[in-house]
Amino acid sequence: MAHTFLLEIGLEEIPAHVVTPSSQQLVKKMMAFLEENRLDFDEIKAYSTPRRLALKVLGLADKQADIEEEAKGPAKKIALDAEGNWSKAAQGFSRGQGCTPDDIFFKELKGVEYAYVKKFIPGKSAKEVLSDVKDVVMDLKFPTMMRWSTNDFEYVRPIKWLVSLLDKEVVDFEILNVKAGRQTLGHRFLGKAIELTDANDYPAALEPQMVIADAKKRKEMIVSQINELAQQNNWQVVIDPELLEEVNNLVEYPTVFAGNFDQKYLMIPDAVLITSMKDHQRFFYVTDEAGNLLPNFISVRNGNQAHLENVIAGNEKVLTARLEDAAFFYEEDQKQTIADYVERLKKVMFHDKIGTIYEKMERVHLIAHYLGEKLGLSDQELADLDRASQIYKFDLVTGMVGEFSELQGVMGEIYARLQGENEAVCVAMREEYLPTSAEGELPQTNVGAVLSIADKIDSIQAFFSAGMLPSGSNDPYALRRQALGIVRIALAKGWALSTPLLQAAVEAAYAKRPDLYEKIAPAENKAMIQDFIADRLQQILNGPNLRHDVLEAVMANKANAFTLAQKAADLLAQHLTDEDFKENIEALTRASRLAKKLDDQSDLTVDTALFENEAEQGLYEAVEAVRKDFKAADLETKFIALKNLREPINAYFEKTMVMADDEKVKLNRLRQLAQIARLTAVFGALDALNTK
């Protein structure tokens, strides 16, 4: 007979962003618990609200599966004494297995006879197994933990009640004097406590108590009500998935309503209005068919329709106060020029171990110009980049950004446009901050992209030089995200950006203005920064379809451009199945390995007068033919050219002893092989590839 088990953890209100991952974690841990205890089930359904994490196990087996196994004991010569009687070892072994010596039989294993007993372990009942479900509840981990009262136990919020029902029967356990039972609580204000008769009554039994425990159903109710309001008023509503998730986890019984604000506030930039509604009040904003903002908003109440007009009025009042502040700052900010704001940045610290924001902008200005030239920006783009890099942090000292910190960069774009800046400069104000997350939007313009890269590499270099490196999960200055952003931007733009180029840009800035680097001189951190950024590239390249040895090979040469490493990984992965791949790679890597014996590789000039056989000459001519057009060729052409060296290389090794007694001849031969190794470096380290 299949059973249903209900587990509900009742809590004080959980932070909205914690609800969904905690619910998923509960299901995962319950699944692991049941599998570990050999208790079969069909499926687990999750339920969650701000005040509860719950699940139902459906199709639960009556009991564990019985186990019948053979237990191995001592060797026969130890199990029996000289007279053929059971030894103490045999008696102890059988007793430990819950058997008697009479149950012992012997089996041969690798030429030796051992004592065995057949061991039968009856499966525990479902109720007996579930009596340990307390461990599942207590094992949950949360981003923020708290203690309450005098308890040492930590949890996301205090536990208020526990429900543990196997069909109609309570499965007892207790956590901090809270005993599991069949009582659950309804809505905090609109519902009451109820006794659940059967686990299968959940979650339907909660609905009369104004609780929709099914998060998916609750979300569908919200979306349906929003769409209904939008249709009634001919509105367009942007339902942001993240906002919808957050709102859904703030309510137990959703009722959607609409409110208004004064039309005069529409003179405020849309970004400010949307931020005020969405980020600060968790409202959905409303537009007309043309996408223009309307003086309306949509929100969700945790409750029913009763006295809804009071709720609407209260929300309108709160939003109006917010918009009034925004209107004031918007007007006041425009009374000063960009130059005024930039001047104020001279007194604003970026970090006390690094310097001011103004000094950071000056460093970024130098770095950005260097990178812009190297990456091929046009004269106009370079001019725009120079201007943008000299002012791009000015909005940090505006009243609007002081009040709405999420709008840094966004307000920079708006204010720059109002003060007549070039459009490319204006857009760069906002794009410099991108991406704002690991997979966030990237800058689209060249000016914005270079400025973003320059700002990020300056931050990484500065914090590394100041000794503030990320460690473990601790990365307070988001340096990993910034490094990842650099790599993602370069790959998206197809730019030949590399860590040596980034380092060269920093060093060029340092050479021009050493006074900007008094506390953060770029001296000893080059290798660390290179590895740090390379790790982010590896993170991007590492995927299920890329063999580990290919990844290791392309990442071995950290000086390669990010785009080149990506293309090399793709190309090698494509050629892995070539019939001659193994032979080609082995020939090239044989040359590369020997080339490592050449200590000084600054001069790889080969003297043909020192050749002693035709194979040396043949390889020389083949390599020279490859080198001639190698730099300008695409990666596929380079790969074909290199694999065509297989025959000359093999012929060379058949007739040539590289490590000759004559030092001049030996060095000449090593230089010849080092030329090949240098050519293969475009693909990383080919000797890392598994060709076995």
Automatic annotation (TrEMBL):
Oligomer status and interactors: Tetramer of two alpha and two beta subunits.
Catalytic activity reported: tRNA(Gly) + glycine + ATP = glycyl-tRNA(Gly) + AMP + diphosphate
Keyword hit for Cytoplasm: yes
Family recorded in the similarity comment: Belongs to the class-II aminoacyl-tRNA synthetase family.
Any one GO molecular-function label of the UniProt entry: ligase activity
Lineage: Bacteria, Bacillati, Bacillota, Bacilli, Lactobacillales
Main location: cytoplasm
Full protein name: Glycine--tRNA ligase beta subunit
Superkingdom in the source lineage: Bacteria
Keywords associated with the record: Aminoacyl-tRNA synthetase, ATP-binding, Cytoplasm, Ligase, Nucleotide-binding, Protein biosynthesis
Name of the top EC class for this enzyme: ligase
Any Pfam family hit: tRNA_synt_2f
Location relative to the cell: Cytoplasm
EC code: 6.1.1.14
Keyword Calcium annotated: no
Species for this entry: Ligilactobacillus animalis
